[in-house]
Design brief:
The structure is a single chain. By secondary structure, the chain is of the alpha+beta class. It contains three helices and four strands, in the order H-E-H-E-E-E-H. It has helices at about 15-40, 55-60, 105-140; strands at about 50, 65-75, 75-85, 90. The chain has a two-stranded antiparallel ribbon with strand order 1-4. Strands 2-3 form a two-stranded antiparallel ribbon. Helix 1 (about 15-40) packs antiparallel against helix 3 (about 105-140). The longest helix has about 35 residues, at about 105-140. The protein is elongated.
Length: about 140
């Protein structure tokens, strides 16, 4: 009788889990960008930023890793720059209004985005957790 070799496969090798992980990382990175916008709401000339939308198809094909660096652009504030092979680059966000000092951050708009981002992150996390439970049930001997 042939010997069955046990195959070990990381959970991230399953495409669905890899994409869900990338989506959660995107939401975490977006939270940092939105927090930076809120923190600089009083900085003259500051333009609000946003991440490019998450592309599920591109995430399945990409095999990059996220990295963030903190750079002091002026002595009074810090800036977080997100770069990744999965499309986590930031863009200038065209807000609803610009103040006389050139600041483009509307706190109400940013806080709405923060709340929406949090809800989306919780949804993806719940989907990830339930998928793991289904996988465990399918692989268990008692199923």
């Amino acid at each position: 009788m042939p010997v069955m070799r046990e195959m070990q496969m990381g959970i991230l090798n399953i495409p669905m889990f890899g994409v869900l992980t990338d989506k959660m990382r995107w939401h975490q990175t977006r939270q940092g960008v939105l927090a930076e916008n809120v923190a600089n709401a009083e900085t003259p000339g500051y333009a609000a930023r946003e991440l490019k939308p998450f592309d599920m198809e591109k995430a399945q094909d990409a095999a990059g890793s996220e990295s963030m660096t903190t750079v002091a652009t002026q002595p009074g504030h810090f800036s977080v720059h997100a770069t990744s092979g999965t499309g986590f680059s930031s863009i200038t966000d065209d807000g609803f209004e610009i103040t006389p000092d050139g600041n483009g951050v509307t706190l109400e708009e940013q806080m709405t985005k923060v709340a929406s981002n949090q809800i989306d992150f919780q949804t993806v996390t719940a989907l990830y957790t339930r998928s793991i439970r289904i996988l465990k049930t399918a692989l268990s001997k008692t199923a």
